[in-house]
Every structure is written in structure tokens, then in C-alpha cells.
Design a protein that fits this description.
Length: 315
Amino acid sequence: MIKTPVCEILGIEYPIFQGGMAWIADADLAAAVSNAGGLGIISAMNANGEWLRREIHKARSLTDKPFGVNIMLMSPHVEEVSQLVAEEKVAVVVTGAGNPSKYMKDWIKAGIKVIPVVPSTGIAKLVARNGAVAVIAEGGESGGHIGEITTMALVPQVCDAVDIPVLAAGGIADGRGVAAAFMLGAVGVQLGTRFLVAKECNVHQNYKHKILKAKDIDTMTTGKRLGHPVRTLKTPFARTFLKMEYNSEVSNEELEKFGAGSLYAAAILGDDKKGSFMSGQIAAMVKKEQTAAEIIQEIFTEAEEVIRGGTKWVK
């Protein structure tokens, strides 16, 4: 079985995190992933502290294994939820969409292991200095909010830049991706799109169907004009958003208003026309619904086979 330093740091069986996907990564999915030996993560998204506290308590009723909370630093409730996770002393906090340095001292004081998602070596160095136990280097192949640098280019640079463990995210769907991440210097991976079709994932069935039917060219990026690009499946909403984005007569405020609530429409309502179905570029590699345990076991069985057999290509 593959064991890496991140397993020892967090007390998990497999070096794999489930991505903190807004409106998707709830207590049910997080507990299932943690029970399967990975690190399940609840997304705090734009929710308030009361909602997050309920999800944390629910997850604790479903698993005795470590799990984390993803805090989106752009959330209007970031101050509240940042204090709440310290009060609840969750095992891990993963952060995204900003610099978490302001909150890290309090989290670390509460015994929380802080693992930020980073889009660059600069941010990686900053959070490492401030006490992060690891970082997640996420490339632009990911679904949802993305940076400019690809996983292949970003991961080794972050590994060279910091002395703490690095996990790879973006464009990873199977054991080949895990093995490749290890070769780049990572000690673990974070997956989002693959877990969208986990049987324990409560996302709308329309969302799962779109992932399972996706082809390799079926994602696109919108929102660059607003400064926070997002990768989604190609849908009527995404195509309309892109047209509006490149229309100089449409203001940024109008564009933001058009996009408001679109992820909820996709994840909760399954709305084919108004929903933003965020997805990574590897959607076409996701072929079937499985339990979280089946996903993790399959991925690491494949990874071990790839690693053992890799030398046959090198003479």
C-alpha cells in the first residue's frame, strides 16, 4: 500500500483529499471519503457559521476519522466560519480563493492543521512561513475557480520552493495521475471531479449525468474579465456568460449578477439552462458511479501498478 508523509501527518490511510466543492462537499460525502481512508472535506462555501456547525457535527456522527473544512476566503461569512472552525477544533482547514495568513495563527493555536490551496510559488512560500503543514498545488485543469499555471508546471516548482509536503490537484482522475503527481514531487493528491459521481455525493443527478457523458473537449473557462476564472462544462449558461463577458456593453456588475446562484442551480436544482456545472478537464475520464471507497481503492491499485511497471519504459 502507498504511504506518504501526509498520511502520517493527518492520520489517514491513503494520501488523497476530496476537493471542497461548494454546494457539493457536504458532511455525507466528507464522512464517506474519510471512512474510506482519505481526507473528506466539507465546503464552508458562502454559508454562515450555523450551517457549517451542523455539517461538522453531522460528519462527526458519521465518522470517527479525520476530516477537514474548506474555507473560501472570499465568502461574506469568512470571519464567522474562521472562528467557528477554531472553536470546533476541526482536524484540518483547507483554504482557497485568497491568502489565509490573517487567520492561520488562531487555527494553529486551536490545534488545526492548515493546508492552503496555492496557485503559485509565492503564495506557497508565504503560507509555509506562517505555519502551514502542507500545501495543495492546484493547476488550471481543475474545475471551479482556477489559476493560470498547469499542474504539470506548477507542482514541481512548488515542491522546489517549500520544505513542507505538497499535494497535487487539477487534471487527476485515476492511478496514472496519482503516479505522475508522485514523480513531480508531490506526496498526495486532491480530486474533485472524480468524487462528483461518488454514490454518497448528494449533487443533483443531472450533474452526475453530465460528468459521465462529457468528452475531452467539453469544458471551458469563463470569468477572466472579472479576475476569478472558472472552469465549467460547456452549457447554455456558460456559453451565454462567455458572450456577455466579451461584450463591452455589459458591465461587470451585470455579469456578476448573471452568474449569481448558477452553481446552486446546477448542483441542487440540476438546471440544464441556468446552471454552472463546474468540472475539471478530466471529466471524460470519469466513466461510472462508485462508492467513495471503490473510487479510492481503484485509484491506488492503479497507481501501484503504474509505479511498479514504470521501469519497463526505461532501458
